[in-house]
Amino acid sequence: MEQVQINNNSLAFMALANEYCQALEQARDEYGQLAFVNAMLRILPRIYISASDIYVPEALLEEAYIDNRLDEDYYDSVRRNIENLLGPDDTYLEVFHQDMKYSDTPIAQSVAEGLADIYQVLYNFLDSVRDMPADVTMAMLTAVKEDFRSYWGQILCNVMRPLNAIAAGSQIDADADVFD
């Protein structure tokens, strides 16, 4: 049997996933709101590109599944920390929600919940591949890429918009102070 090797794109994705998870775990202790938002605006596009570029050889394309390893209480604490850090900026109006096409009322979403949902996927992936052989890691990469296509890729794009608005609003506020 041919030995499976993890390619550079996959290694880059795993490194970014780890960086993202650490940033969310340290959100409350290490960052102010603007520093956290800027960190997310730097890492989320890179994760998107990296997840899009995951290549899995045809021979490894099979049904793979990543178990849920993240404790619900820990997920909730990560979400709450981000929610508290963002304050009123946590809520945004979502236009890509499935129910939006049937609604005249805007649908509110939470940046913290979106970021925590991505965190859960990446945490489960990283915990699943820890100390696993390359063929198992590649199978898990298949699962995380499929999940990206069907679920968390859209969430990632959706939370970029309000994060960008927070950063842009902070820049406008900073510029206004200069002229006062």
Characterise the protein shown here.
With about 180 residues, this protein is mainly α. The chain has one domain: Protein of unknown function DUF5063 (Four Helix Bundle (Hemerythrin (Met), subunit A)). Helices cover about 70% and strands about 5% of the residues. It contains 6 helices and 2 strands. Strands 1-2 form a two-stranded antiparallel ribbon. α1 packs antiparallel against α3 and α1 packs across α5. The C terminus is likely disordered. It comes from Muribaculum caecicola. This is DUF5063 domain-containing protein.
Based on CA atoms alone, the radius of gyration comes out at 18 Å
What is the N-to-C order of secondary-structure elements (H for helix, E for strand)?
Answer: HHHHEEHH
Please state roughly what percent of the residues sit in beta strands, choosing from under 5%, 5-15%, 15-25%, 25-35%, 35-45% or over 45%: under 5%
Count the domains.
1
